[in-house]
Amino acid sequence: MIAFREIDDADPALTFSPLVRGIEKTFVWIGEHGGIPLTSSKAFERVLVHWAAAEFDWPGHTEADLFAVNKVLNEWDFPPLEILHGLMIAMKLGRHYKGAFRLTKAGQALVGHPGRIFGTVVPFFLYRINHASLSRFDETPILGNWDVFLNVLNVETEDGATGGHLRRVLFGEPEAGPLPRYDDVMGQLYIQVLRPLCWAGLLQQEHGAAGYRFEEAVFMKTPLWRAALRLETDGVARGAARF
User: Fold this and answer.
1) Strands (E), the chain
2) What is the pLDDT of residues 158-188, one digit of tens each?
3) CA-CA distance, 84 to 104, in Å (whole number)?
4) Residues in the chain where the model's pLDDT stays below 70
5) CA dihedral 84, 89, 93, 98 (to 10 degrees)
């Protein structure tokens, strides 16, 4: 797997990562309250979920987005928070103890160190999480690997590229038919590759005319991509940017 470069805690590129921002703000809550209260099913209680919806400012899951379809928010109504919770448990950065989520020593060591959070959490999130399991359907992992995806995207998103363009570059043209149909390959490319990179802060997504269509969304590299990654195709990407 491609290694990430170490990022200094003061690097402004870290502000592009919703994942780092969400974990940092969660650590602040825990520091101020001693822990996050849990429901009987071990989910974060609504008081934390409502606070996180306002504080995280997560693209596609802002407070306005979430309350547009929910009167109250449970953890499962805010998917990035639910994933973040599971991620911190899987990495042993926190644990459930006496009805609350509390940081472990490993989690405490990351408090106040956004660069260290990025270097520790993002590789685990990208490389170790089965993103196919986050689909609404029973999907298998998409064909390919992160080395290929990162090197191809390094070139193709230099000046921005639509999801449809990336789908064609990586997997060819979708099957043609007499009627419009959902492109499952495009959907899985988004769920398993493009969305995780956006949540990590390496890519940013701008919606097309139809905001819900992955094919029309435009994906671009953020300054964090350039700060964190050194790839085989860097020379090709720089050349593409000149022409």
Assistant:
1) 36-37, 94-97, 100-103, 161-162, 203-206, 218-221
2) 999 999 999 999 999 887 765 666 788 898 9
3) 15
4) 135-141, 143, 177-181, 208-212, 238-243
5) 110
